[in-house]
Design a protein that fits this description.
Blueprint: E1 8-14, E2 21-31, E3 37-43, H1 45-49, E4 67-70, H2 78-81, H3 87-97, H4 104-110, E5 119-122, E6 135-136, H5 140-151, H6 161-169, E7 180-185, E8 188-194, H7 203-216, E9 224-229, E10 232-238, E11 242-245, E12 248-251, E13 253-256, H8 257-260, H9 275-285, H10 289-305, E14 317-320, E15 326-327, H11 359-362, H12 373-397, H13 402-408
Parallel strand pairs: 6-7
Antiparallel strand pairs: 1-2, 1-5, 2-3, 3-4, 7-8, 8-10, 9-10, 11-12, 13-14, 14-15
Helix pairs in contact: 7-12, 9-10, 10-12
The structure holds adenosine-5'-triphosphate and magnesium ion.
Residues 176, 314-315, 332 line the site of magnesium ion.
């Protein structure tokens, strides 16, 4: 474990088509005159001098010899923050370090080398060799056990070497709040998401069913499957930022919606959380705006139809496998059953009536998603019918029990949607 209190590190990147990383630049995290976190990033001269370089982030950290500064997100540039752990991974790292609340840089330096996107972090000017060994899907039973111990707040004794190994085994670097690990099989790498002990329904199967349902609604989604380990279901979502090749894994760059919006993370500061703004920003960056902007519109409509109110900006991402950026496949789709029938709000702004998950509101800004009025209307009406008519059968076909299906029923096409 890297010691606490580091104030600078090197940022590595795996260039398109490569399986090994190179040093892209240096990141420093200090404080401004008022004592607030201030981040600085500068690309290395030799990185800029290479012929085939790419920007870490096409918005905030364009390729240049400038020194970039930020005070947002505790001084950690969005693209770097996107490569770091969230609630779950931070918790694992804290347990492992035996210290609560590490510095932002410590989380980046201490997370395992299987983080989302193409970046890496370290104290050496030269990047470490790429990781060759990953947890296997065969080890899911063990991983599930460790995850459950962590969920139960059990004091995992870090002084015992074996358990320290265990903690690192679970992987710490993927974002998100739910317990998860990264696993490998013959096809490649997967994010394994475990059910929580306090889940009110079988989240694993429900999330898998929502990805299937979204696919039938014409949305491009991450590949997923469910594995049952010792009677418990685990969701495996294929990593869309990794590709297995003869020389190892290639890595796609990745930035979240939060970075694209240059927004803050806390819901209290959500004034920039907006589908409309994401659409405008992505139109500037992606290679095929005519494809991605309408795709974002479809995801927004889908989220409204299944009451996915956890659709915060980090549940959307752009990726770049080669030089060009595009919207990533959809992931983390979860319905929220609710009593309210009149009005439901998504996490981000949808249109003229704010976050109101309602057909009229969804249609109020269609031009910003590069759609014609008729196209937008057709998407809303076709998808509404599709979700209404098929959600139950899709859910049951994915092994969701009748009881669970009834528990989540109120999430789908609620009354206020068509007011
Ligand atoms: N299939 C995938 N390939 C690559 N990266 C992924 C994939 N699925 C998720 N991620 C990354 O991992 C993060 C966490 O995943 P996910 O959103 O599914 O977890 P979660 O714990 O349910 O999140 P939340 O905190 O939003 O509930 C995402 O924000 C994204 O950066
Ligand atoms: Mg998420």
């Amino acid at each position: 474990m890297t010691s606490k209190g580091n104030t600078e590190c090197f940022v590595y990147i795996t260039l398109p088509g490569e399986a090994e990383s190179v040093t892209a630049g240096r990141f420093e995290l200090t404080k401004d005159r008022r004592g607030n976190p201030l981040g600085r990033f500068v690309y290395g001269k030799s990185y800029l001098a290479r012929g085939n370089t790419v920007a870490i982030d096409p918005i905030e950290l364009k390729l240049s010899s400038d020194t970039y500064e930020t005070t947002r997100l505790n001084g950690v540039f969005g693209a770097l923050r996107d490569s770091g752990p969230d609630y779950w991974g931070r918790r694992v790292i804290e347990k492992h370090a035996g210290v609560p609340q590490l510095g932002e840089l410590d989380y980046l330096l201490n997370s395992a080398d299987d983080r989302a996107g193409a970046l890496g972090f370290g104290l050496n000017q030269t990047p470490p060799a790429p990781r060759r060994k990953f947890n296997k899907t065969l080890e899911l039973a063990k991983l599930q056990e460790i995850a459950e111990a962590l969920m139960r707040e059990e004091d995992v004794k870090t002084e015992e070497a074996a358990q320290v190994q265990d903690l690192m085994l679970i992987g710490t670097s993927m974002g998100g709040a739910r317990p998860k690990a990264v696993v490998e099989d013959n096809e490649g790498l997967w994010v394994a998401k475990f059910n929580r002990l306090d889940d009110r329904w079988n989240n694993t199967r429900v999330e898998h069913a929502m990805l299937e349902l979204a696919r039938t609604c014409g949305i491009s989604v991450a590949t997923s499957r469910v594995e049952t380990i010792a009677g418990k279901d685990v969701l495996l979502v294929k990593r869309f930022d990794r590709e297995k090749t003869g020389k190892g894994y290639t890595k796609a760059r990745m930035i979240s919606g939060l970075t694209l919006l240059r927004a803050e993370e806390a819901p209290e500061t959500r004034d920039r959380w907006s589908y409309v703004l994401i659409s405008e920003e992505l139109r500037r960056v992606v290679a095929e705006p005519k494809k991605d902007a309408p795709e974002l519109f479809r995801r927004m409509v889908f989220n409204a139809l299944i009451s996915n109110i956890d659709d915060h900006p980090r549940n959307h991402a752009l990726i770049a496998k080669e030089r060009d950026w595009r919207l990533s496949p959809a992931y983390d789709l979860t319905p929220s059953p609710m009593v309210a029938q009149d009005r439901r709000d998504l996490a981000m702004e949808i249109g003229d009536q704010g976050r109101y998950a309602n057909a009229k509101n969804l249609l109020s800004q269609y031009t910003r998603f590069l759609l014609e009025e008729e196209e937008a209307k057709a998407i809303v009406s076709t998808m509404t019918e599709k979700v209404r008519a098929t959600w139950y059968d899709v859910a049951r076909a994915q092994g969701i029990t009748e009881k669970d299906a009834e528990t989540i029923r109120s999430a789908f096409v609620y009354e206020g949607f068509s007011y």
